[in-house]
Write a structure and sequence with these properties.
alpha/beta; about 120 residues; Ribosomal Protein L15, Chain: K, domain 2; Ribosomal_uL15/eL18; ribonucleoprotein; ribosomal protein; five-stranded parallel beta sheet
């Protein structure tokens, strides 16, 4: 399968997702995530902090298969893994005491929320 991965982080995400899919854990979910990550950069999802805030609760592990932007705020503590973060989004997450997880660590969690 041809990949649109232009950097090592995207290739890492795709490799981890394919590995998880081969373990027969939620094959459809991992297949959809691979498609969301393995697309041209201009078509990838962009998610604002307010949307993450609306769709998560305190202590959740959230995966964003795209870029996180700083519009809005976070009023609870979450663990977040995304492909990219804007500088101001990272600062806002740090102020809210949210943790930024490597993708490999996020996949090890039992309950994951995906925000697109």
């Amino acid at each position: 399968m041809k990949t649109n991965a232009e950097n090592n982080q995207i290739k890492e995400w795709i490799g981890l997702l394919k590995s998880e899919r081969s373990k027969n854990r939620d094959r459809k979910l991992y297949g959809k995530l691979i498609k969301m990550v393995d697309m041209p950069k201009r078509k990838r999802h962009v998610v604002d902090l307010y949307k993450i805030n609306e769709n998560s609760n305190d202590g959740d592990v959230v995966i964003v298969p795209g870029k996180v932007l700083s519009k809005g705020s976070i009023d609870h503590k979450i663990s977040l893994s995304a492909i990219w973060y804007s500088q101001s989004a990272k600062k806002t997450l740090e102020k809210a005491n949210c943790s930024i997880l490597p993708f490999s660590e996020a996949l090890k969690q039992k309950k994951i929320k995906i925000v697109i």
